[in-house]
What we know:
9 strands, single chain, alpha/beta, Rossmann fold
Amino acid sequence: MSELASIPPTFRDDVESILIPEAELDARLAELAAEVDRDYAGKELLLVGVLKGAIFVMADLARYLTVPSAMDFMAVSSYGSSTSSSGVVRILKDLDTEIEGRDVLIVEDIVDSGLTLDYLTKNLRSRQPASVEILSLLTKPSRREVDLPVKYIGFEVPDVFVVGYGLDYAERYRSLRDIVTLAPSVYGG
Length: 189
């Protein structure tokens, strides 16, 4: 069986390798949910997903949580169709929920430079929540440009271009069940 057998045939030529298989993602999200449950015992949590990438992470995390939680979403842009953050952040969709006095957990797919998430965290803290913490499925510390405290980290990944499980390149590959490395020929790397 080919290493890429789980990848739909239409995407196989674009994928270099599977970095984190679906089963490992699922197991790690269950572990992260247990940590969040322990830290927020007796509290109600507001999960704030950063669209579009965090949709799968947030949905699966929420299913594992046992603490009461609500969900809301923000959409921010700093990439466009580029492979690196521009550092200029635009809020495309703001929260529908007031967060003053609430415990907020920002849920992200990946922390790369940290510039977008730093902006977002400061923006949310200015709204007077009881607390703001960050959970990110992936982190690339080698790319970090700001010191950003990420409380819950799924996996540390090397400085490679990853897609799948919500992560995209030009709006493609989000639906892949694994985190995969994208072939440089696809993105001009």
